[in-house]
Amino acid sequence: MDISKDKLLEMYRTMQKIRHFESKARDLAMAAELPGFVHVSIGEEASATGVCAALRKTDRITSNHRGHGHLIAKGGRLDRMMAEIFGKRTGYCKGKGGSMHIVDYSLGILGANGIVGAGLPIATGSALGAVIAGKDDVTVAFFGDGASNEGTFHESLNLAAVWKLPVVFVCENNGFGEFTPMATVTSVKDIAVRAKAYDIPGHIVDGNDVLEVFRYTSEAVARARAGEGPTLLECKTYRWEGHVVGEQAFLGGGSYREQSEVEEWKLKCPLIRFEKWCAESGKISSAELTKIVAETEKELADAVEFARSSELPSPSEVTDDVYNIT
Amino acid sequence: MPQISFIQAINQAIAEEMERDPLTFLMGEDVVLGAFGATKGLIDKFGAKRVRNTPISEAGFVGAAVGAAMAGTRPICEVEFASFFYCAFDQICNQAAKLRYMSGGQATMPITFRAVFGAMGGAAAQHSETVYAQFLSVPGLKLVVPSGASDMKGLLKSAIRDNNPVIVFEHGALGWSREDVPAGEHLVPLGKAAVKRPGNNVTVVAIGAMVAKAMSVADKLEKEKISVEVIDPRTLIPLDEDAILASVEKTNRIVIADEGHLRGGAAADLAAIVADKGFDFLDAPIRRVTSLDVPIPFSPPLEKAAIADEARIEAAIRDVVGR
């Protein structure tokens, strides 16, 4: 598959935006500037980016608690996302959702979700909605290895397979469900093999290779759009940071992985890998990449400034939007 | 006006609303065959794309209804028995109910959930429970409990058109009850109670199948010059508090009859509202007539012992009127 230079530049920019946003979110949470729980996806940028690069604007995604990257990759604005995690009125959800619940309907982002496995049936239903409405939009469900042990994973794959729905299930296997190593609680080594149980294609993908993720997703999306049904992709990746920012404070000195393992995965950084590929293939110059980094830094700084200077919601807004009154 | 059954009313409401809007569709357990008759024949009118049998997989397909609503369609989602909602609690309570609020008003969730509830003779606790109280504490949902065929049709049509998640609880014992029901357009708004029978001495607020029981007790007591006003709230969320309070202001006495349980039930909720807002109207304590706080048993004499009935409604009325 030949990937256009514009697409390559877009993918790099997306990965940089995710890395910058997540690093900043981590720092802000550690500095107690953000309320609530913050889960960041540093090290997992390639899967969110490669998947969403294969989608069009009217396609939809559902995401999970570690969702910032997915939302950025689907086009979410850094300023309104940052304002939301600050709990500000200018945030995507007017401060009602927070880090785990960012939504932008206009971009097909049906939402991050705080319940593990909740996004899969919603994505399946979104795909059903497209069929009912006679549209060829595809929906992607992002979820983790932990969610693949939820009943909703199995029920969704079965339903989507039976109805041949235009949905792509993207499992980001980062090796841990919260603080529990995946291998100790999962009956299979590779989540992708679970596709067999539902008679749909399942592929293991190098989740740190944005180009490979893009290729596999493009194929799965084309298949879904053609009415041939769902695909399960398992992107093998790794979470550099903990499950939740600040976890050291409540893990009480306990640990669930070796630092050497983290360091090994850092050597497989998806951004460095892409930069190397650019140099080796000669497709993109280092100057072009450097320019993107500088632009991203500026965009992020503006986003933080926007969030900090935005107003908090007024207590009188607490009862707004419980019901649709139209 | 034609007389039709509760089940036929459901069928008419769904057929009319699906006729009206091509994005309205039906999904659920055995809806193609129409296991209890409510959805019988809809497959012939609307085809397999819009009338879909789901696997017995409540979390999956209830969640899919949420996603389909978010994609701009209007699902009518049936689980056969209301106790099966427990298998889809996350999808209803965490997702359907909350996502509008959590998204700052971006999500619209026009879903109608339907299920049969209540004691209908030997179905035992997992097929006989009155489960709406479990949803009363979930802001974002609307709860509808029709007491007869006419309201069934009018309320279900309103529920389907509503842009919020609405659960319509259909009492199993009412299935073959018949009433005059307008053919064609017949809408009953959500949030408007019905005064089923005017009276002066005591208000009985009765929910679902308890309405007919309260009416029969009222008939009996009329002969003793005890005048009973029967109010059917029809929807628990939204609740027509004004109608209930206005009635209590007139009668100064209230009995709340519900097939649900006593603790934490719909009757407890209504009693608290009357105590909060209508205390000055009251000349007697608020009485609740509910089923016992036991799982609904299988064997007929045990089931009968557990379920609120006419005798208990009558006793409660006599207690508050002192006769």
Number of strands of chain B: 14
Order of helices and strands of chain B: EHEHEHEHHEHHEHEEEEHEEHEHEHH
**What percentage of amino acids of chain A are in beta strands?**
5-15%
As for the CATH topology of the largest domain in chain B, it is Rossmann fold
Count the E strands of chain A.
7
Shape, per Cα inertia axes of chain B: globular
Major sheet: arrangement of strands of chain B: 3-2-4-5-7-6-12
CATH class of the largest domain in chain B: Alpha Beta
Detailed description of the structure:
The complex is a heterodimer of chains A (326) and B (323). Chain A has 326 residues and is of the alpha/beta class. Chain A has one domain (5-307): Thiamin diphosphate (ThDP)-binding fold, Pyr/PP domains (Rossmann fold), CATH 3.40.50.970. Helices cover 43% and strands 10% of the residues of chain A. Chain A is built from eleven helices and seven strands. Chain A has helices at residues 5-30, 45-53, 68-73, 78-85, 119-133, 151-162, 210-225, 248-251, 259-266, 270-281, 286-309; strands spanning 60-62, 139-144, 167-173, 176-177, 180-181, 202-206, 231-236. In chain A, the strands form two sheets. Chain A has a five-stranded parallel sheet with strand order 1-2-3-7-6, sandwiched between helices. Chain A has a two-stranded antiparallel sheet with strand order 4-5. Chain B has 323 residues and is an alpha/beta fold. Chain B folds into two domains: 3-180, 3-Layer(aba) Sandwich (Rossmann fold); 194-321, Rossmann fold (3-Layer(aba) Sandwich). Chain B contains 13 helices and 14 strands. In chain B, the strands form three sheets. A seven-stranded mixed sheet of chain B has the order 3-2-4-5-7-6-12, with helices on both faces. In chain B, strand 10 (202-206), helix 9 (210-222) and strand 11 (228-232) form a beta-alpha-beta unit. In chain B, helix 1 (6-20) packs parallel to helix 8, helix 3 packs parallel to helix 4 and helix 10 (241-251) crosses helix 11. The termini of chain B are far apart. The mean pLDDT of chain B is 97. At the A-B interface, helix 5 and helix 6 of A face helix 3, helix 4 and helix 5 of B.
